Amino acid sequence: MRITVIEHEADAGLGYLESWLGIPCDVVRPYLGEPVPERAADGLIVLGGEASAWDDAGYPWLPATRDLLRRAVEDGVPTFGICLGAQLVTLALGGTVERGAAGLEVGACPVTALPAADADRLLAGLGTAVAVQYHQDAMTRLPEGAVLLMTGAQYPHQAYRIGSSAWAVQFHPEATPEIFSSWTAAGGKQELDAAVKAAEPALVAAWQPVATRFAAVVRERAAEA
């Protein structure tokens, strides 16, 4: 049993998820020339990065990643798209992603579960939770059939499910304080770094159970295969 992971840049890796999932991960690094596979293993995670989801010229592996995501959702492979990964899911399935009108969303920010999340296998019971954010593009129209699960003050589309086993989250449940500070190093955002560090216990409390639940979905599907 294995999870395919698409990593878009060295500073945006699995972070917390590496230890939380408890399932071996095959990390594909297309920015180093590694080819994006046509099919995922027993699960699929697509991580974040500074690319815009539509910038195929600057990041030539994005079309193959969108194809991989579309096949995974169609095949019922448990799928988890994070930030850029969520935006790629959205484009792959016919939604819209564009530069966000509300500007950069960055730091430790609250996200709130909607009533639809009450019965969700990953996000049930979260209520309002703190999450690491770092994005300026936004999912402005979700794919047909998507169920919005979480919202936020700056951008309303924070998490959704499509099908029975594919999730997209705009925020970064994988991001440790160290990862976040690597993203802000050039911008002098020490106050944001400190806030994320102070939020670490709340981040772990909120998102480690979500990772554990996703791993359980992967195991369940693998057992049925």
Question: What does this 3D model show about the protein?
Answer:
- This is GMP synthase-like glutamine amidotransferase.
- Residues 38-178 form the Glutamine amidotransferase domain.
- With 225 residues, the chain is an alpha/beta fold.
- It has helices at residues 17-20, 62-75, 84-92, 177-184, 190-198, 200-224, and strands spanning 3-6, 25-28, 43-46, 79-82, 96-99, 105-113, 128-135, 137-141, 147-151, 159-162, 166-169.
- Strand 9 (147-151) and strand 10 form a beta hairpin.
- Helix 2 crosses helix 3 and helix 4 (177-184) runs antiparallel to helix 5 (190-198).
- The mean pLDDT is 97.
What's the layout of helices and strands?
Elements lengths: L2 E4 L10 H4 L4 E4 L14 E4 L15 H14 L3 E4 L1 H9 L3 E4 L5 E9 L14 E8 L1 E5 L5 E5 L7 E4 L3 E4 L7 H8 L5 H9 L1 H25 L1
Parallel strand pairs: 1-2, 1-3, 3-4, 4-11
Antiparallel strand pairs: 5-8, 6-7, 6-9, 9-10, 10-11
Helix pairs in contact: 2-3, 4-5
Protein name: GMP synthase-like glutamine amidotransferase
GO molecular function, one term: transferase activity
Organism: Nonomuraea soli
